[in-house]
Amino acid sequence: MALTKSEIMTAYPLPSYNYRVEIAGAAVGFSEISGLSIKRETTTYKESPIGGAAPGPVVMNMPAQPAAPTLTLKKGIVKKTSVATLYAWISAIQVNQVEKKDIYVRLCDEKGEAVISWKVQNAFPTRLDAPTFTASSNEAAIESMELMADAILIEEA
Q1: Which residue among 54, 55, 66, 117 is least crowded, i.e. fewest CB within 10 A of its CB?
Q2: 145 within 8 A of 90, measured Cβ to Cβ
């Protein structure tokens, strides 16, 4: 059975290459984003069985506090913008003084409109990696930044 264009648009998954990243409201181009995970730590409870029905303790695993998200953002180095974007942010960090920023990663449809957004709350950089330099390669120079955040929220448009 043939599907109409509107049926395909609502029934098929969105491609992962059509996304937009905003750091504190400013659009920044990244070639790869990973670590958008919502995770909970777990805790184990042990209690004695009631009435001696089972030998040994009863073990239960339960959810605990949320795990702190760690994101990795990768982008090509571009003259006059790369240093201002990522290096300035991480170099401004001092002990107990950091500028935390909200980051939005927006998955877009074919028109470029956001369909789903991941809001990364209070993110701050923990690591900035320079590209790997190889004389025998002609690949683009890619820098990588790791961020830690308080939480990730998912918003549907």
Answers
A1: 55
A2: yes
Two structure tokens written together for 150 = 């308080």
Tell which residue, 1, 149, 5, 124, has the closest CA to residue 68.
149
For residue range 119-140, what is the model confidence (pLDDT) as tens digits?
999 999 999 999 989 999 888 8
Tokens found for residue 143:
């820098």
Return d(Cα 100, Cα 89) in angstroms, integer.
Answer: 9
pTM: 0.81
Exposed/middle/buried for 74, CB within 10 Å: 0-12, 13-18, 19+? middle
Distance CA 65, CA 38 (A): 11
Q: Is the pLDDT confidence value at 102 over 70?
A: yes
Reduce the DSSP state of residue 118 to 3 states and report it: strand
Q: Are strands 19-23 and 101-108 parallel, antiparallel or unpaired?
A: antiparallel
Angle at 35 between CA 40 and CA 30, to 5 degrees: 155
Region for residue 111 given its phi and psi (left: phi exceeds 0; alpha: psi -120 to 50; beta: otherwise): alpha
Query: What are the structural domains, with CATH classification, of the chain?
Result: 5-39+67-156 (2.30.110.20)
Handedness of CA 53, 55, 56, 59 (dihedral sign): negative
Retrieve residue 145's tokens. 């930044």
